[in-house]
Amino acid sequence: MEFKTLPVVQGDYQLRDYDETVAAFSWADAEKQFSWHESGKVNIAHEAVDRHAESYRKNKVALYYKDGNRKEAYTYYQMKRMTNKSANVLRNHSTLERGDRLFIFMPRSPELYFSLIGTLKLGVIVGPLFEAFMEGAIFDRLSDSEAKAIITTPELVDRIPVDKLPHLKTIFLIGENIVEDGMIVDFNKHMKNASHSFQVEWMDKEDPTLLHYTSGSTGKPKGVLHVQEAMVQQLQTTRWVLDLNDEDIFWCTADPGWVTGTAYGIFGPMLAGGTMLVVGGRFSTEGWYEAIEEYGVTVWYSAPTAFRMLMGAGEGPMKNNDLSSLRHILSVGEPLNPEVIRWGMDAFKQRIHDTWWMTETGAQTICNFGCLPIKPGSMGKPVPGIEAVIVDDQGNILPPNQMGNLAIKKGWPAMMRQIWNNPEKYDSYFVNGEWYVSGDSAYMDEDGYFFFQGRVDDVIMTSGERVGPFEVESKLLEHPAVVEAGVIGKPDPVRGEIIKAFVALHEGYEPTDELKEEIRQFVKKGLAAHSAPREIEFKDSLPKTRSGKIMRRVLKAWELDLPAGDLSTMEV
Ligand code: 6R9
C-alpha cells in the first residue's frame, strides 16, 4: 500500500500566552501533522525518519554519535537507508510478524538506533532493555511478553537464558566473529548486502509500538505498552517543552532502556526533524562537558542525579570547556532540588527546567515550559491538552493547596494502553474510569502550579506530621558534606514513624558522630524540628535505579531486614 507523504511544515508552534494556548489547543489539530490525516494509517518510523529524508531536511544530520574515539554522523537520508536495511535483515532472517515482540539489549551505538527504528518499520513491538540487566531481569521480561527475538552483542548474549524461553526463536548478534546457527544471526554481515529500500508496514494509530518494563513498589516489573499515537504528544512536547528548533543540537542523556531515552532520546527529536547527539559509555564529568563543547549542544535534557554528580565535581572540570552553546536545560526523573537549580543558575547562567511524567504517561505531562513563568519548587503546569488534578483516595477532586494524589484525565495520546498480560493491573490505575492516578502525591496551588511531594507510598508520618522525604533529602543535600541522601520512615512505637536518613559523604569528610549531629541540626534549622532525621546512617553510596532515582524501598528493606523485591532496575 502506498500513501502520499505529507510535506514537512515547520508550522507556528510558538507558545504565546499559557491560557490562550491551552484554550486554542486540540490534539486533533496536532495529529494533522502526520500521514494518517490523509490516509488513516501511520508508522512512527516513517514519521520520525522517512518523511524528513524526503523533505528539505534530507541532508540534515539526524544523529551524531560519540563514544571515545568512535564518532559518526548520519543524515536523515542515511538514517532512512540504515533503518530500511535493518528492517530487511530482521524480516529476512526471522519469522517476526506485526505485533510480535523483539527486545533490544545492547549499549548505545548507532546500530541500536538503526535496529530499533527498523523493528518499528515491520510493525513489531520493541522492548528496550538496559545493558546492565542480568539473567533474572532478562528472563522476567522476555517470558512475560513471549518475545520471539532479541538483538544483542556477543558480550551480553550469555545472560539470555535461552533454554527457559521457549518463544525465543532468533538472536541477532551485533559484533565481530559471529558464528551463525539455527538461532544466531550475524546482524552486521547481513546489513552489508541488505537492500536499502523497504516499505514500512502501515499501522493504525492504536497499534502498539513500545513495551517498556518498569518496576512498581511491589512485585515483578510490569510491561507498559505504548501505541503509535504517542507520537502526537512526543512531537508537540518536543516543540513546546524542549523548545527544539531546526538549528538546535539536542542531547538527551538517557539510555533507551528508560522511557526518557526513547520518547525524547529518539522519537521527540526525530519526529521534529531535529539533530540529536548520543554519547555512548558511562557518565563522566569531563566527558560530558567535552561533548557539550565539541558538538555545541544547545538543548540539554538530563536528570537530577546527573546534575548532582556534576555539581559534586565542582567548578574545576567546568573551566576546561566552553559551555556557552547551551540555551535550554531540562530535567526529569526525580525532584529537582532547589540546591540543584541554584547550582545551575551559577554554572550555566540559566534555570534548569523541571518536567514531570512517567513511563505510564508516555510523554511529558506537567512541565515548566515556553511562556510559563517559573515558580521555584514547582514542576510547572499541565502541557496543553493535559488535564491534571489532585484527588483524594476516593477520586474526589481536592481544592488548591491540599495534598493528595496527582491524577490525569484519561485519554491523552501517549497514555499507556495496556499492562502486558495484566488487565486488572491496568484497570487499577484509574479511579471512576476517568482519572489516571499516578502514585505520586502532590498539591496544586491557586495558580494551577503543581508541587511534587513524594511517591504516595513514601510519605512519612511522624508524630502526626506528614513529611515528604524529598524535602528532607533536598535539605540534606545543601549541607556541604552530603553528596547523596535517601530518607525513609522507620517504624517507631511512639511516633508512628521516625525519619531515618541514609547519607553518602563527599570525599574528604569523615563519617563521625559529630558530623551526624551537625547534619541533624542543619536540617532542623533549615526545615523544622520534626523534619530532622532522628537517625542518620553513613553509606559509601545509595541504591539507585538506572534512571537515577534513589530506591527508598531498598533503604527500607535494609532497615527492616526484609527482602528488597525486584532489583532489576538497580544501578550496579
Ligand atoms: C519519566 C520517568 C516516574 C516517577 C514519577 C515520579 C518521578 C519523574 C519527576 C519525578 C519529581 C519530577 N518523577 N519526574 N518526581 N519531579 N520532575 O521518570 O518515568 O521512570 O516511570 O518514573 O518518577 O515519582 O512517578 P519513570
Automatic annotation (TrEMBL):
EC number(s) reported in the record: 6.2.1.1
Boundaries of every AMP-dependent synthetase/ligase domain copy: 50-417
Key word Endoplasmic reticulum present: no
AMP-binding enzyme C-terminal domain mapped to chain residues: 471-549
Gene Ontology, cellular component aspect: cytosol
Keyword Transport annotated: no
UniProt record, GO biological process: acetyl-CoA biosynthetic process
InterPro entries xref list: AMP-bd_C, AMP-bd_C_sf, AMP-binding_CS, AMP-dep_synth/lig_dom, ANL_N_sf
Protein keywords: Acetylation, ATP-binding, Ligase, Nucleotide-binding
GO molecular-function terms, A-Z: acetate-CoA ligase activity; ATP binding
Coiled coil: none
NCBIfam families recorded: PRK04319.1
Family designation: Belongs to the ATP-dependent AMP-binding enzyme family.
Protein name, UniProt field: acetate--CoA ligase
Species the sequence originates in: Filibacter tadaridae
Gene that encodes the chain: acsA_2
